[in-house]
Design a protein that fits this description.
alpha+beta
């Protein structure tokens, strides 16, 4: 999108903000658009499109018509934007409320709505509503990224567009295409659900995102109206949890310790010995589960080390993932080419809308932060200095149509310090968009599951203030509901938090799923954080002599060892905390991601990415341990494959082939 469109939208906005009685379409066409060549119909379409763009930014363009003769003539209609109707109301927050709000915004920092949360906080900062706040020790929850489907569905819900996707029905086990009006998206029982109207079945339906077998297609030319007063949390509250079932598995003897902790041995032959219908070197175990797809994803990652004997739907779930992964691995190889310069990141293509949104935040920010160094301003907005200077050059050329020099935005940065002396009624932030309101209010609702925050009054009071400030857009936030973020075992969390506060070193016994082994370590605790309700301890491990991240639910014992922390390392400055700390001796792996799996580039901190035809992606990722990569490929069932090094690619193909072979060799093994 050209910069000229950004400039046109900005000038149109300033013109409509600074007119008391309104401007006719002919005046706007002449003074703002400088349009002399297009037809009236073509110009009308452009103008309507631009009005829609401004509406998305929070500016409602009002049409004023004169009463009496000719009042229905479009030529006599005047347009303006009320100076107060689009402004973010003043929001005054206490330090305690700011702490809660920042935690709510950080929930989304590495997930869908992350940029919206940042924009919303920036608006509050520009309005002077945020004060300095200190985050509490050990309370840094995050929402786990739910993949590209999540982001596409959130966009479709807010824009009220139907969606199309392929779905594996839990009741029939059949894969079918669904056409759905998405009403809301929420988390229940540790799974994300879409609630909407299934047009093919003419009724409301619930869809688990983990059962989507294709990318989500948004039908942008179609719209729908959701039910009045819809609340996705209330809808999901009526869902009954699936009953507990028992899976019968043959597990390689002495392996998969994590799975064995949840299992019961079945009475047959001695462990590892041959038995009727069971190969030697395996143990037959019974594992409780509620959902075949969830357990199937885990079991697929174990490849040939486990075979599902029953129930059939669980075996089918595992086979389907293994087959999809094997078929993806056998496809013709793409050309591996990354951008020649710099580190590429997976981002959506920048548009003029992105630039204008940033400018509308930039002007009030500069008004309230006069004299900041230009590099600091660029860093605050997450852009390069060149991109910021491009923005500023457009801003200083924008103003009232055919106005005098004093009618232009006046910004100077000659000495690398940025000053603004003429803001043309852009001094206050625009009201929250639906994405911004949704990011903050859903984040605050999610924090209710943390007792130490829910018990105080700050969470409730800041929620009420933001609901009032968000207005109608805040009501739409009921279409999204976050997961529980409280830890499953609070005792381990409390021990780790106490050590952080006192500076005590910890001794832990830890089960590593990647190594399939239990080890004992002394660590210096640095930080606690979470993904949904899975909590992690970031610590300096004296055994590994480096930073490590330990899942609390895999810590079998944790206690102070009587020594203070050695102050050997500090937590990373960035947030969110990376689950994987890169090292110089890591293996650089090139993977191909299918369209449904492009979110894995973010999850595993890809250093370089490159788009592929059809929506897929190449990603270059560092891995400290490569032994588990075949498990990684199998688990994601056709969403990722290894391209380089070839030895790792071959190992993953062999792993998948061995896993599939055991199902072919024993399709109907009896249960003892």
């Amino acid at each position: 999108m050209s910069a000229s469109r950004t400039e046109r939208l900005l000038n149109l906005l300033i013109a409509l903000l600074n007119t008391k009685y309104g401007l006719r379409r002919s005046e706007l066409r002449e003074k703002v658009y400088h349009d002399t060549t297009s037809s009236d119909v073509a110009f009308g379409r452009m103008f309507e499109r631009d009005k829609g763009e401004l509406r998305q930014f929070g500016f409602d363009v009002e049409a004023v018509t004169d009463t009496g003769w000719g009042s229905d003539d479009p030529a006599t209609t005047r347009y303006r934007i009320g100076k107060e109707s689009n402004r973010l109301p003043d929001v005054s927050l206490t330090p305690e409320e700011c702490t809660v709000l920042i935690l709510a915004a950080q929930l989304w920092e590495h997930a869908a709505l992350g940029s919206a949360a940042v924009d919303a906080v920036r608006k509050l900062q520009a309005a002077g509503g945020l004060v300095d706040a200190e985050l509490p020790t050990g309370v840094q929850p995050r929402i786990r990224p739910a993949g590209q489907a999540f982001e596409d569905l959130v966009a479709a819900i807010h824009a009220q567009h139907p969606v199309r996707f392929s779905y594996l029905a839990g009741s029939t086990g059949q894969e079918q295409e669904r056409l759905v009006e998405p009403w809301g998206l929420g988390s229940r029982f540790g799974q994300w659900y879409l609630v909407g109207h299934d047009r093919g079945r003419g009724d409301k339906r619930f869809f688990r995102l983990s059962r989507l077998t294709s990318a989500v297609t948004v039908l942008e030319k179609d719209t729908f109206t959701p039910p009045a007063g819809f609340n996705v949390r209330a809808e999901l509250a009526g869902l009954a949890e699936l009953p507990v079932q028992s899976a019968v598995l043959d597990v390689e003897h002495g392996r998969l310790l994590g799975l064995r902790k949840r299992a019961q041995p079945l009475p047959d032959a001695a462990p590892g010995a041959a038995a009727p219908g069971r190969p030697a070197g395996t143990d037959r175990l019974a594992v409780p589960f509620r959902d075949a797809e969830t357990l199937g994803e885990e079991l697929a990652s174990y490849g040939p080390r486990v075979t599902v004997i029953s129930p059939p739907e669980l075996a089918a779930a595992v086979r389907r993932r293994l087959t999809a992964a094997a078929e993806f691995a056998d496809r013709p190889l793409p050309d591996v080419a990354f951008p020649a310069a710099g580190r590429a990141v997976r981002t959506r293509k920048r548009t003029s809308e992105d630039q204008l949104k940033r400018m509308l935040q930039l002007v009030p920010f500069l008004v309230h932060n006069q004299g900041l160094h230009i590099s600091e301003v660029a860093a605050r907005f997450g852009i390069t200095r060149k991109a910021l200077e491009d923005d500023l050059r457009i801003l200083i050329c924008s103003g009232l149509p055919e106005g005098y020099p004093d009618d232009l935005l006046d910004i100077q940065w000659d000495d690398d310090h940025v000053f603004i002396t003429q803001a043309l009624d852009l001094t206050r932030p625009v009201r929250f968009t639906v994405d911004e309101a949704c990011a903050l209010l859903t984040g605050l609702e999610t924090l209710n599951s943390l007792p130490e925050l829910a018990e105080g009054g700050a969470l409730e009071s800041v929620t009420l203030k933001l609901m009032a400030a968000a207005g109608e857009e805040g009501v739409k936030a009921a279409a999204l509901s976050g997961p529980e973020v409280a830890p499953g075992d609070s005792a381990i969390l409390d021990t780790a938090r106490a050590a952080l506060e006192s500076g005590a070193q910890l001794h832990l016994r830890y089960f590593s799923a990647q190594r399939d082994a239990v080890s004992e370590r002394d660590v210096d605790p640095l930080r606690l954080y979470s993904l949904d309700n899975t909590w992690y301890l970031e610590a300096y491990c004296h055994s590994a002599q480096g930073l490590r991240n330990f899942r609390l639910d895999r810590i079998e014992a944790l206690e102070p060892n009587g020594r203070p922390v050695a102050a050997t390392a500090k937590p990373a400055d960035s947030f969110p905390v990376k689950l994987f700390t890169p090292n110089d001796d890591d293996t650089v792996v090139v993977v191909e991601l299918a369209p449904r799996g492009t979110g894995l580039a973010d999850d595993y901190y890809a250093e370089r990415t490159a788009a592929l035809p059809g929506g897929g992606m190449l990603a270059e990722i560092r891995f400290g341990s490569t032994d588990w990569l075949p498990m990684f490929v199998a688990q994601h069932g056709g969403m990722v494959r290894i391209l380089q090094p070839e030895a790792l690619a071959a190992a993953s193909r062999e792993w998948l082939a061995a896993a599939l072979t055991q199902y072919e060799a024993f399709p109907d093994r009896p249960i003892d």
